[in-house]
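Progress report, Aim 2. The chain analyzed during this reporting quarter is listed below.
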Amino acid sequence: MASKARKKQIWCPQPLTPLMEGPDPEMQEEGGKKESSWEVIREWFRAQKGGPPSPGTNLSASGYGSGGTIPAKGQDLRLLLGVLGCPLAPIPQTNDPIDHHLLHIKDIPFETSIAHYIIQQYLAATGCLKQQKCNKNMYASGSVKMVCCETEVSAGRNVKTLGTRSGENGCFVLWQMLPGMWSLELVVGGIKVVAGSDGKTVWRHTPWLGTHAAKGPQRPLRRLIQGLDPKSTASLFAKAQCLGEKRIGDDDCFVLKVSADRAAVMERSEGPAEVIRHALYGYFCQKSGLLIYLEDSHLTRVETPESETVYWETTIGSSIADYRDVDGVLIAHQGRSIATVFRCGEVSMEYTRTRMEEAWSIDDVVFNVPGLSMDYFIAPADVFDSTLPSP
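Predicted structure tokens for the chain:
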């Protein structure tokens, strides 16, 4: 399996623009339109309203044909991959998830000390505390099915619901080396998305937008913390607060919350698009100690050229199940994510909301793959050739 990682990847030169995790700010520039990775999402919403593409939109990059239209199936798939393909967690993870916070319990708030205890129980439940040696790297492969379920368009009192239920099957391969280096290849419906991190820079490559680098601090891939890497999950919640208890299905859970601080979200803002907040909630089963549900909410405010304020909120909730023992560590082998993208104005009653789903399963997990080194996580050359500041 290590031979898969050694396969040389050839990257065509692409203009590098920041990886936006919110909507395109619809910013017109002299000499043409500056694209972002959310342009496809914005045009998808525009199409649901029956409107033409935005002026200056790169039709070929967005998937439009010569007539300025894009097939609904391809449009839905680009939206799915843009939202559910490879989202990132809101904050960086610490280097050592198993530290000694409890030695200084008098110096931290009560909600934080409770969260530390819950995380220690989670590490014990997954078997990480019993490991004699640390896993240096990991390989995982799995399958996914993505479905664009329905879209709700409101124009005041009139609400129109569109149910497409268009879906595609796919698969993914994921490599990870601690700390903070990972590589993901995801293929759904014949479209390939590649993302990775060399420990300093997070980047993503799509066929229609090329290579993009993420702004702000280096953050872990959300797919890794969905029960696939318990230590990364524990590290992410190292500074969490316990909000209390909530029932998920038949299980009583402790709810932990971790949020990006103001400086971090401001660093991820660009132009008229301002990131307001990004928070992650983990639901840990009181009986088993395992993470069974994960939810994050990302809100962005955009000032349009028409001086209109528009808010975009993306919410992803993931059910995590089927924990199995892999070399002494319990790894979740299946789950289901439901994402909602909501767009509304500050004054207008109009809004657009779409809902999409992803069902995923893990086929194979291997720790400590022989021969895997840091060389396999080097970012594409155009990332380093960029004049953008490093995250």
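The chain is about 15% helix and 40% strand. Residues 110-126 form the longest helix (17 residues). These observations will guide the mutagenesis work planned for the next reporting period.
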